[in-house]
Design goal:
The complex is a heterodimer of chains A (498) and B (490).
Chain A: H1 2-18, H2 23-43, E1 55-56, E2 59-60, H3 70-86, H4 93-115, H5 119-140, H6 145-174, H7 179-187, H8 195-209, H9 219-225, H10 228-238, H11 240-253, H12 257-261, H13 265-284, H14 289-313, H15 319-350, H16 361-364, H17 366-380, H18 386-398, H19 416-425, H20 431-439, H21 441-458, H22 464-467, H23 474-492
Antiparallel strand pairs in A: 1-2
Helix pairs in contact in A: 1-2, 1-4, 2-3, 2-4, 3-4, 3-10, 3-15, 3-23, 4-5, 4-10, 5-6, 5-10, 6-8, 6-9, 7-11, 8-11, 9-10, 9-14, 10-15, 11-14, 13-14, 13-20, 13-21, 14-15, 14-18, 14-20, 14-21, 15-17, 15-18, 15-23, 17-21, 17-23, 18-23
Chain B: H1 2-9, H2 19-37, H3 43-64, H4 68-89, H5 91-98, H6 108-125, H7 130-148, H8 155-186, H9 193-200, H10 205-229, H11 237-244, H12 247-269, H13 281-305, H14 311-331, H15 337-366, H16 377-380, H17 382-396, H18 402-417, H19 427-450, H20 465-487
The chains are: A mainly alpha (498), B mainly alpha (490).
């Protein structure tokens, strides 16, 4: 059954491309089918596991839902895909076809990556999903689209190669080429020969894909430039691939994950502060809505890396960090997708994204204002909305195993000295806790830019650009409501059981 | 005396081994005679018979045995058939550049000579001694010289022919010289474990001298083989010849002739395999030389391709770069090397042939082989453009295509051999850089097809049926063979 989650979008894309069926309708059909199938798979009982889901005509497949994060990522993928396709609005018929094909291939690639048991397939599906991103930015992007597309191609191409090298060394030293055999190898006590090298390569490769500071400069322009469905799917879903990979591999190594990533942990903590604070300030300075959202998405990745660092510092026992990361990945994916969707609608209404030239849109389109407010507040981390659950869990998890005066990261490695000096000054806070204290300011920063953007766009007098606003189509409203519904639902009932 | 010589030369060959070779030679002779005696016969029939002959031989080889070298034979036969069929689509330009105008006269050999070359390749695959190896390799090369310079009214083609001839003659010289050293140091032309073992054992002063001479012999022989595969420093001819030669011939050179080159390398390297282990002095030298050659080939091929604007020249550099990835298999040869080489060559052959077909189509209809001539194909011919994208993506090593699996193998082999030869770690960043460079230059064509708007005077390309079928089959092959291994739990 799992194979259909990949095959349906691919077949639909082929129909649109080769048989010239109408783009949006075919894509909607495919996204609807995968939504239903995906929800069934997500809700399927865990003990059914491998046999009943991952075979095709009797042949066993290398797809499974056995990994801890698979279900939640699958859920995110099908939800965002459906909303992206529902809200798809292309300039003309040909463009609609290309957009639909790209969105479907992107979603198929992401689904494949999140379900693959084979490590090479896991890598391969992600690469496949990147291609439509580049093509779409290059063909239909806003602004200086070709330069942006090339920058992203080079960054991500190189990062993928570094990642591939890391994965290959890992697999070859562990003699395991799938996550399940890797887990078996770890159980059997096999240890990689050069763990620090592998950890470094993985962190650099996955990190660049998730726009870890200072390798983040490709991301914000790319999201700002990409057509709406592509920005939704890439920022919302595909970017989580890197964190999914890091958490999965660290989770498989369990209490031995310190060998791989431990010595990079302090460096990672410093870099993620770069994401939260540096990129945070960059975000505050943006004057265009799309640039601001692109940067904000980069900024929030810092919290996910914080969860990862806490997981590693807890030697793989910090279940809370994993749980928090899962929730935040889901929540951030939904909220940023909704924000990009609304950005597309705002642009369609006002034909501009300059914050200064908009204003008073809420008077013309109160529905849009309400949705944007909801998504913005979710992104800031307001309680009872999905992001809060994730962020709060991560913040708690940073203190999970902490006893005053103890330093969680014991290994003597990069940056341990400055951290321990600081730690003694500050009442024995460990590196993770120290970082958290600084990273919390990110919440304030995101409140500043998000609320300011809301004020600029929706409040005050009706500006010239907003006066053009007409009314939203039903599909626009439903697509936004669909995502908003899940943001609220997961805020009240965080899906911790998945 | 006669018996003595035959002991020196022959491995235990049987006539039966050479049946496919004879079949092709006889077919080629018949076609040449037909062309000579029936000049009015349309050349189309010659081309079709020749291509069918090649395909038939390929089928026979598949049915015959699954030995890895036979796989190379299948690839070579298939590639020859495809280049002959491409030559048929290319008829307009062939006629124009050979006889002038629309006249088909004197173009018969253009369709039959590839058969002779293909027969040479099949014969080569059976060689277990240097004489047969050399003779069959020369059959391939001589036919290729003629073909490369076949368009005598086209300056580029003539230049390509002469360059190829002169540089090729030099490599032939190296090969013969190497064979002489080989015979001088071992007293035999046979390529066997015993010969190598005796030659490299060393110990006494006299046998140490033998080791030196034997290494010299092998260096020269490998240099000759490097010329055929386009490994640095014997790569200089490739971009010029690929660019200048008629496109069907470039296809033949890029695929079939390169396959022949790797077959030579495999045959030469086979007796060495048990000796490439840490601890043997010669092994260290061997690994170093191949690692350096592979690294240089990767760098020069892939970085050289970055700045190219001519699609054929780009493919020339790309073929050097791809050879670099294949050479990585040869650094630490093992029993799996022939299979992996064949696998990589299959991926390379399918994709490269498809791209050459596309180039030929663009050349005949838009009159240019520049990358810019692909402009707007994504708009005017969306389906064809997509098939070309698949081929290019496979060359670049995009996942879920066969090219990815091939490149992945190359990385895996390197990572595995790093456990025995730690210094090979240096190659890893080079390979990463080159693979990333591949994304840049192959995507240049994709970019031209999708990002550049067609000019007002550009009408949609008329896709000839052969081209359409070949492009579709190649693309389907690349995707199916590239996806199945990852999805199915085999």
């Amino acid at each position: 059954m799992l194979i259909w989650l990949i095959l349906i979008p691919v077949i639909a894309a082929a129909c649109i491309g080769l048989l010239r069926t109408p783009g949006r309708a075919t894509a909607l059909l495919s996204a609807g089918l995968t939504l239903v199938l995906g929800l069934c798979a997500v809700l399927s009982p865990t003990d059914c596991g491998h046999d009943c889901l991952s075979s095709f005509c009797g042949m066993p497949l290398q797809l499974s839902l056995a990994l801890p994060l698979s279900r939640i990522m699958l859920l995110l993928t099908v939800l965002v895909t459906f909303a992206a396709v529902l809200g798809l609005k292309a300039p003309d018929k040909d463009a609609a076809r290309s957009w639909a094909i790209s969105a479907l291939l992107l979603s198929a690639g992401a689904t494949g990556a999140f379900l693959s048991d084979n490590i090479i397939a896991f890598y391969g599906f992600h690469e496949l999903a990147l291609i439509p991103t580049f093509v779409m930015i290059g063909c239909y992007g806003r602004g200086n689209r070709r330069t942006i597309a090339w920058t992203a191609t080079l960054y991500l191409g190189l990062a993928s190669m570094v990642l591939l090298a890391g994965l290959l060394i890992l697999c070859s030293e562990m003699h395991a080429w799938s996550f399940s055999t890797l887990a078996a190898a770890v159980q059997a006590g096999i240890e990689p020969g050069s763990p620090a090298l592998i950890g470094g390569l993985l962190l650099l490769g996955f990190g660049t894909l998730v726009s870890l500071f200072p390798f983040h400069t490709w991301a914000a322009p790319a999201y700002a430039s990409a057509p709406t469905p592509i920005a939704m799917l890439h920022a919302g879903v595909l970017k989580k691939f890197g964190l999914y990979g890091l958490f999965t591999i660290a989770g498989i190594f369990g209490d031995k994950c310190g060998a791989l990533f431990g010595c990079w942990n302090n460096l990672l903590l410093l870099l993620l502060l770069g994401n939260v604070l540096w990129v945070g300030y960059v975000t505050v300075c943006q004057t265009r809505l799309d640039d601001m959202l692109g940067n904000s998405s980069v900024m929030h990745m810092g919290y996910l890396f914080l969860a990862f660092a806490a997981f590693i510092a807890g030697q793989g026992h910090n279940e809370l960090a994993l749980q928090g990361a899962a929730l935040l990945m889901l929540a951030h994916g939904l909220s940023i997708a909704l924000l990009f969707l609304l950005t597309g609608q705002i642009e369609a209404q006002t034909r501009t994204l300059e914050l200064d030239s908009m204003g008073g849109l809420a008077q013309k389109l109160p529905y849009l204002g309400f949705m944007f407010g909801l998504a913005g507040l979710a992104s800031v981390g307001l309680p009872l909305l999905a992001n809060f659950a994730g962020e709060f869990t991560i913040f708690v998890s940073a203190f999970a195993d902490w006893v005053p005066g103890s330093c969680l990261t014991t290994c003597d490695c990069i940056l341990s000295r400055p951290f321990s000096a600081l730690s003694q000054m500050l009442g024995g806070l460990g590196p993770v806790q120290l970082t958290l204290v600084f990273a919390l300011w990110g919440l304030v920063i995101s409140a500043i830019y998000m609320l300011r953007a809301f004020r600029h766009i929706f409040e005050a007098d009706v500006a010239h650009a907003s006066a053009r606003a007409d009314k939203l189509s039903l599909a626009d409203m439903v697509a936004a409501a669909f995502l908003a519904l899940f943001i609220v639902l997961f805020g009240i009932l965080p899906p911790t059981c998945l | 005396m006669e018996e003595h010589i035959s002991n020196l030369v022959s491995a235990d060959y049987t006539w039966c081994q050479f049946c496919p070779t004879f079949a092709l030679v006889i077919l080629a002779a018949l076609l040449l005679l037909t062309d000579a005696f029936l000049p009015k016969l349309p050349k189309r029939s010659l081309a079709i018979v020749a291509a069918l002959g090649c395909l038939g031989t390929a089928g026979y080889l598949i049915a015959d045995s699954g030995a890895p070298l036979t796989l190379l034979g299948v690839i070579a036969c298939g590639a020859t058939a495809l280049s002959i069929m491409l030559a048929f689509d290319y008829k307009k330009i062939t006629c124009d550049s050979v006889a002038g105008g629309d006249c088909e006269e004197g173009t018969g050999e253009f369709y039959t000579l590839p058969l002779v070359a293909c027969a040479g390749i099949l014969c080569l695959l059976q060689a277990r001694d240097l004489i047969l190896l050399f003779v069959s390799l020369e059959v391939v090369t001589l036919s290729s010289y003629v073909l490369a310079g076949y368009f005598r009214r086209n300056q580029g083609s003539v230049e390509a022919g002469i360059k190829y001839l002169i540089l090729g003659a030099m490599s032939t010289g190296l090969l013969v010289f190497g064979a002489a050293w080989y015979f001088g140091t071992t007293g035999s032309f046979l390529l066997s474990f015993d010969t190598v073992q005796r030659a490299i054992s060393g110990g006494t002063a006299a046998s140490n001298a033998v080791v030196g001479g034997f290494l010299m012999a092998n260096a020269l022989l490998f240099a000759g083989a490097f010329f055929k595969v386009g490994a640095v420093p014997m790569h200089l001819w490739i971009p010029d010849v690929y660019q200048g030669a008629p496109t069907p011939v470039s296809t033949f050179l890029a695929v079939a002739s390169k396959t022949a080159g790797f077959a030579v390398l495999l045959i030469l390297i086979a007796p060495w395999m048990p000796f490439i282990i840490p601890g043997i002095t010669v092994a260290r030298l061997f690994v170093t030389v191949f690692a350096v050659v592979a690294a240089a080939t990767l760098l020069i091929g892939n970085l050289g391709a970055l700045t190219q604007n001519n699609a054929k020249r780009l493919l020339g550099y790309s073929s050097i770069g791809q050879a670099g990835f294949i050479l990585v298999f040869f650094i630490t040869p093992s029993a799996a090397t022939p299979v992996m080489t064949a696998g990589y060559l299959l991926a390379y052959a399918l994709a490269t042939t498809a791209v050459f077909y596309a180039i030929a189509m663009v050349r005949t209809q838009r009159g240019s082989e520049e990358i810019a001539a692909f402009r707007g194909l994504g708009k005017t011919n969306p389906r064809t453009a997509f098939l070309i994208v698949v081929a290019l993506a496979s060359l670049a090593g995009v996942p879920l295509t066969l090219g990815f699996i091939a490149k992945l193998n190359s990385f895996v082999v390197l990572v595995n051999s790093m456990s025995l030869w730690g210094n090979l770690l240096i190659l890893l960043p080079i390979m990463i850089l080159c693979a990333a460079a591949g994304f840049y230059y192959y995507f240049k064509i994709i970019r031209a097809m999708y990002w550049d708007a067609p000019r007002p005077e550009d009408s949609p390309l008329q896709v000839p049926p052969t081209t359409g079928i070949v492009l579709s089959l190649c693309a389907i092959g690349l995707i199916v063979l590239g996806t199945l291994p990852l999805l199915l739990n085999w």
